[in-house]
TrEMBL record:
<dbReference type="InterPro" id="IPR036390">
    <property type="entry name" value="WH_DNA-bd_sf"/>
</dbReference>
<dbReference type="InterPro" id="IPR016461">
    <property type="entry name" value="COMT-like"/>
</dbReference>
<dbReference type="InterPro" id="IPR001077">
    <property type="entry name" value="COMT_C"/>
</dbReference>
<dbReference type="InterPro" id="IPR036388">
    <property type="entry name" value="WH-like_DNA-bd_sf"/>
</dbReference>
<feature type="active site" description="Proton acceptor">
    <location>
        <position position="271"/>
    </location>
</feature>
<keyword id="KW-0489">Methyltransferase</keyword>
<dbReference type="GO" id="GO:0046983">
    <property type="term" value="F:protein dimerization activity"/>
</dbReference>
<dbReference type="InterPro" id="IPR012967">
    <property type="entry name" value="COMT_dimerisation"/>
</dbReference>
<feature type="domain" description="O-methyltransferase C-terminal">
    <location>
        <begin position="125"/>
        <end position="349"/>
    </location>
</feature>
<dbReference type="Pfam" id="PF00891">
    <property type="entry name" value="Methyltransf_2"/>
</dbReference>
<dbReference type="InterPro" id="IPR029063">
    <property type="entry name" value="SAM-dependent_MTases_sf"/>
</dbReference>
<keyword id="KW-0808">Transferase</keyword>
<dbReference type="GO" id="GO:0008171">
    <property type="term" value="F:O-methyltransferase activity"/>
</dbReference>
<dbReference type="Pfam" id="PF08100">
    <property type="entry name" value="Dimerisation"/>
</dbReference>
<keyword id="KW-0949">S-adenosyl-L-methionine</keyword>
<protein>
    <submittedName>
        <fullName>S-adenosyl-L-methionine-dependent methyltransferase</fullName>
    </submittedName>
</protein>
<dbReference type="GO" id="GO:0032259">
    <property type="term" value="P:methylation"/>
</dbReference>
Length: 372
């Protein structure tokens, strides 16, 4: 609608100016924890500035921007009609700003901070032109002199923030990914590159008889296990979960399959890697399956054919994620044919691609038996 009623010059100005200014405002709302402060009820900018130690007028202007853009609700505090002043306007959380509260069950706060905050991943976007001119280059290395994983490891607190951002992604779409695919027919979920295990926990929570295996790098798994044991609900799930660490490029470190009821889940993992690396990861998983006819379930943003692209409301997010992967890792989002050929080269047969009511689909494959 917006695309059709706003004249093209204004729409371009709007895209160029409003989108980046909105990102900055989103970030600042998180950095100042404003939605958390507003969680107790509506407040004026003046009252809030006293709690936050900010300049009242500047804070008011920040909140007014957020209000105008629908990120907060604002109304007159009942004083002089129409006076937009730090003391005359009440700001209140709405459905969007509530998502920036630290403890909201669908919080997106860590995602915003990780992408846009200190040591921000979005810095790689400054290298977009360079990346498009370059074949196979790594914009992250150009921005920071190091790749994403090293950057996460070496930036204070960023690795933790990233794993929490991954959990935020869960809040935004896990429910549909859980509901729109029949996960309950499996006995054991083996989550490869499962980060802090938020998706695994959701799977186990919905299927009380199933077991789980969380596999990731040592430092991530150690933190995940500690987190699970501290969290009362997850502690119960931990009894059904094996926490194992290793390197998915080393097949011998992966958890071995035990039967046909096992499903190896790789959610948002392969899109971080080039075709060669993805092939190596898939081959490791194939090797870990041995002779068991278990299932591989990749949760990925499968790119739709061009003619369907504009009709699909999630395709904007998929296209953005594709560029983000190019900049972060020199990798990509893939379409059905690209998945089919990668899976075949790794010893799998692509079964179905199950769409969900989110940007993600489940790419389901089974191992091709090895003939001797
Ligand atoms: C994009 S995150 C996806 C996390 C999780 N699957 C999710 O959807 O929330 C990729 C994960 O792969 C893990 N990873 C990266 N390199 C790895 C390696 N060589 N072996 C095992 N895990 C690795 C990272 O630690 C990270 O948790």
């Amino acid at each position: 609608m917006q695309d059709t009623i706003i004249p093209p010059p204004l729409r371009i100005a709007d895209l160029a100016f409003t989108s980046f200014t909105t990102s900055h405002v989103l970030l600042t709302l998180c950095q100042l924890s404003i939605p958390d402060f507003l969680a107790t009820g509506p407040q004026t900018a003046l009252a809030l500035s006293q709690k936050l130690g900010t300049d009242p007028d500047r804070l008011f202007r920040l909140l007014r921007f957020a209000g105008v853009h629908g990120l907060l609700t604002m109304r007159s505090a009942g004083g002089k009609k129409g006076s937009w002043t730090p003391e005359g306007t009440l700001f209140k959380n709405n459905a969007l700003s509530s998502m920036l509260c630290d403890d909201h069950p669908q919080s997106q706060r860590h995602m915003v901070l990780c992408l846009l905050g200190k040591d921000r991943l979005a810095a790689a976007w400054d290298e977009l032109e360079w990346a498009v001119r370059t074949e196979g280059g790594d914009a992250m290395k150009r921005a920071y002199g190091r790749g994403v994983w090293e950057h996460l490891e070496k930036s204070d607190g960023l690795e933790d923030l990233f794993s929490r951002a991954m959990a935020d992604l869960d809040h935004s779409c896990a429910t549909t990914v859980l509901k729109d695919y029949d996960w309950r027919r499996f006995d054991r979920y083996i989550d490869i590159g499962g980060a802090y295990g938020s998706f695994l926990a959701s799977l186990l929570g919905r299927h009380p008889a199933a077991k789980g295996v969380l596999f990731d790098q040592l430092q991530v798994v150690e933190r995940a296990e500690g987190d699970w044991l501290r969290h009362p609900e997850r502690k119960l799930l931990a009894d059904r979960t094996a926490f194992t660490s290793g390197d998915f490029f080393k097949p011998e470190t992966l958890p071995r399959a035990e039967g046909p009821g096992d499903v190896y889940v790789l959610r948002q993992v392969c899109h971080d890697w080039s075709d060669d690396d993805t092939l190596a990861i898939l081959r490791s998983v194939r090797s870990a399956m041995g002779s068991h006819q278990c299932t591989l379930a990749l949760v990925e943003a499968v790119i739709k054919p061009t003619q369907q692209a504009t009709a699909d409301p999630y395709n904007r997010a998929r296209a953005a994620s594709d560029l983000h992967m190019m900049l972060m890792f020199g990798s990509r989002e893939r379409d059905a044919e690209q998945w089919r050929s990668l899976l075949a080269a790794a010893g799998f047969s692509l079964g179905r691609i199950v769409p969900t009511r989110s940007m993600f689909s489940i790419v389901e494959a089974t191992p091709v038996p090895v003939t001797v």
